[in-house]
Each structure stands twice: as C-alpha cells, then as structure tokens.
Amino acid sequence: SVEQLPDEKLGPELAAAAAQLRDGGLIAFPTETVYGLGADARSSFAVGRIFSAKGRPSDNPLIVHIANRQQLDELVLPYPQLASALMDSFWPGPLTIVLPARPDVLSPLVTAGLASVGIRIPDHRTALALLELAGCPVAAPSANRSGRPSPTLARHVLEDLDGRIDGVVDDGATGVGLESTVVELVGDQMIRILRPGGITLEALRIAAPHATIDSASLEEPEVAPRSPGMKYTHYAPKGELVLVQGAPDAVTAYIHRQVERAASSGERTGVLAFEERLQGYKADRVLSLGSEAELETAAHRLYAALRAFDEGSVQRIWSESSSEQGIGAALMNRLAKAAGNRVVRV
Ligand code: TXA
Ligand code: MG
C-alpha cells in the first residue's frame, strides 16, 4: 500500500544513507535475500573498508548491485544473448550474473583481480530506492562478519558489525532469507550455477530451455571452485552440527537416540526440524523450519535459527534434511556447509 513505500517511511534516512555511500561510507541495507553491506563500487577506499569491517579474505570478489539496466552498460563488456534473456526473466531478483567487467570502472578490490564481475538488480523497494538515490554501483556482500550466518534482520547486522560501519537501513526482515543464485555463462549454450540460491534450477530451466545447466561444481566443492567464495568454510555454529538424511521415521529415531546420549553426558543439545515432527524431540533447544511442504519458510528462517543455537550455547545440534527440489537445493547447500559436511545417512 502507498503508505508503506520506502520514500514515505524511510525517505530522509535513505537520502542520508545514499549521501554517505557517495562519500565513501559503509551502509548496510535490506534486499530480498539477506542484508547487504554496501559501498561505492568505484572507490577502492570504500570497498577496502568492506573487507576490513567483515574480516573478509581479499581474494573473494563482491557482488555489484545496480538499480536498472542502464547502469549495467557502464560496468560490463559485451555479453552473451543468454545473459540478456536471464536478466529479462529474473531482474529485479535474486540472480547474480557473472559478466565480463569493463576495465578501469570498478575498484579492482570488487573483482579481486578477476576479469569478470557478478551483478544483480535486487527486488526490494528500499534497496532500489537507495541504489537510485546513491546513483553509483554498490558493492555489497552479506552484512555479517566473515564466518557468521548472513543477516536476515537489521539486528543481526548490528550484532556483527556495530561500530565498524556507518549505518544500517532497517526495513524489517528480508524475504528469501538465503543469498542470490550466482551463475556464469558459457556462450549462449551453458549456464553454470556457481552458488545455488533464490532463483531455482527449475526456474532457470524454464527461462532458458535450450541451455545446458551445469551445477556439477556444487557436488565437488573442494575441486578448484570457480566461484571463489565457495572455497571458504562458511558459517559453522559454535556447537557441532550434523545433518541427518533418510526416511523421516529413521531420521527422527536417530536424532532422538543421539540427543538422549549427548544429554546423558551433560551436553546442551539442539534440534532443527520441520513442523511435522517437531513435537517428538526433547532437546534443550528445538527450533522449527516450518512445514516441509513449504521450503520457502525454512529458507526464510534458517540463518536466524543458526544464530539462536549459538546464543543458547548449544554444544551438539542435529538437523533434519529436506528435498533438494526448488529452494531446497540452496537450503541443503547452506546446511551442509554449516555442518562442515558432517552428513549422516540413516
Ligand atoms: O543475495 C546476495 O547475493 C547477497 C545480497 C547482499 O545481495 N550478497 C552476497 O554476497 O551473498 P557475498 O559477497 O556474500 O557472496 C558473493 C558470492 C561469492 O560466493 C563470490 O565468490 C561470488 O559471489 N562471486 C562474486 N563475483 C564473482 C565473479 N566475478 N566470479 C565468480 N564468483 C563471483
Ligand atoms: Mg556472504
């Protein structure tokens, strides 16, 4: 409704935030995926501050956010027709497309020295309003300290980065709750998924029926990852997380036994489960991912749940698994990473 438009609610704050961005500032802002930590992508001073604030390795490139397709032409060299087709289908939206970078426009820190740059137009009114007001391309990784879950609330941003950044635009919870899908194109024939995310494999197939879609690199993340970010151990909770796969009854029985055993040796236990079986668990902390028939809800809740286990000082955590259809692929990818690939099949 009209009264919820960001220019009404957040107008003066957004104008100030945009001015800070143009001035080399670091501003966290919501997108439809997770909160991003933004800086002027043309300025090495500003972008350098992102890496120090996050404690991020400098060889991991940043995604550039723009408000519209006109801004794109200034940043990239000619690209495959397939890329335009994906933009038509998914922008604004949670799809980051790796494109050939035009030299000498973006700070080299953004691309970590690569000849390519990952770009997206976020599907979020407040993000778009901020990007338009700033008028510059905005480099923005997720607004967490490196090694922490991505923030889905402004409060998460402040937990990790208060005192290290110049501000956060608080517009409530983000939508998808997991980061964008990152793709690279091989000519007009092939889409390579470098990171599963908000745009599903199934949606890419429908939008590009003639392209081959390759996500093989996801199954062997330790083999020369093409997306530099995939090689870093991502978030790992303070407690030891195990991802349990198998038939629902077997999974429940296994987790039940493991929780009892750990509890009897005095450990604080946690379970991450779907609504359908939630009542059966007797751990110190049992957190719900919502119904397994609605994995969008699980994606939306995952990172906040992982933060909550840390706050509760849980030492051993077991998580149920979901199907890898649709957003389930990204969900299981992030859970497996958080589990440091400790996946048990029962
Ligand atoms: O949803 C998102 O994508 C969020 C919001 C804020 O937009 N941003 C985000 O950024 O997740 P970050 O920096 O946490 O993840 C960027 C990912 C990394 O895995 C990085 O390696 C990959 O994108 N990437 C960036 N530029 C690339 C490039 N030129 N080639 C290959 N991978 C690239
Ligand atoms: Mg991140």
UniProtKB/TrEMBL annotation:
Chief location: cytoplasm
Family annotation (InterPro entries): DHBP_synth_RibB-like_a/b_dom (IPR017945), Sua5-like_dom (IPR006070), Sua5/YwlC_C (IPR038385), Sua5_C (IPR005145), T(6)A37_SUA5 (IPR010923), TC-AMP_synthase_SUA5 (IPR050156)
Binding site for L-threonine: 33, 65, 120, 140, 180
Binding residue positions for ATP: 56, 60, 142, 150, 195, 235
One GO term describing the cellular component: cytoplasm
GO molecular function: ATP binding; double-stranded RNA binding; L-threonylcarbamoyladenylate synthase; tRNA binding
Residue ranges occupied by any YrdC-like domain in the UniProt entry: 11-199
Assigned keywords, A-Z: ATP-binding, Cytoplasm, Nucleotide-binding, Nucleotidyltransferase, Transferase, tRNA processing
Alphabetized Pfam families for the sequence: Sua5_C, Sua5_yciO_yrdC
Catalytic activity: L-threonine + hydrogencarbonate + ATP = L-threonylcarbamoyladenylate + diphosphate + H2O
SUPFAM superfamilies named in the record: YrdC/RibB
One of the GO biological process terms: regulation of translational fidelity
This enzyme's EC code(s): 2.7.7.87
Subcellular location: Cytoplasm
Role according to the record: Required for the formation of a threonylcarbamoyl group on adenosine at position 37 (t(6)A37) in tRNAs that read codons beginning with adenine.
Similarity field: Belongs to the SUA5 family.
Protein's name according to its UniProt entry: Threonylcarbamoyl-AMP synthase
Taxonomic source organism: Paenibacillus endophyticus
